[in-house]
Amino acid sequence: MLEPREADIPALFLVFVVLPLPAYVLLGKWSEASKKSERVRLLAQLASEEAVRAEEMVVPDIIPPVSSSKNNVHACARCSRPTITRLQICQILF
To answer: According to the UniProt record, what class of enzyme is this (predicted)?
Structure first.
């Protein structure tokens, strides 16, 4: 039967006891770090989706016409048609 020599016992102790302890600790820290980074990535994705939804709610779908005062053409306050003054029909209704 094989028996270990005295010189093999410290080497076996080193390989089976001392080296696995730091490896176990480092792997545990690595696992925690990967879980934290995944959580941060998920929170960042949720925040960006919420920002997009909030921006869609704020920005109107239709951009109102801009009146240009170069040609004395303005928009009617009631119907937004181009005109010099308020349209007569709009003056009656408004």
So the answer is: hydrolase
Domain ranges of the chain: 8-59, 62-94
Sign of CA dihedral 20, 21, 25, 28: positive
Q: Which residues, in sequence order, are CB contacts of 59 under 8 Å at separation 6+?
A: none
Buried b / exposed e across 17-53, counting CB within 10 Å, b at 16+?
eeeeeeeeeeeeeeeeeeeeeeeeeeeeeeeeeeeee
